[in-house]
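Hi U.,

Before I forget, here's the chain from the pilot set. I'm dumping it here mostly so it's searchable later in email.
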Amino acid sequence: MRKPSWTQDVLGRGLSAHVVNARILTFTALPLTPNGELDSRRLSAPSDTAAAASLFTTRKAS
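Structure:
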């Protein structure tokens, strides 16, 4: 699995900086409902508080 920073670098080459997410979370598996749709209620929150805080802070446009 590629690192999130690699993903941000690749996306940053072709997209404007304000379009690329400041934080990218990776999952080994996504929770699904019995009919195969994403179960967003069962998604876990980021494990560290710094990561959680970065999800809700705005990034300055460069």
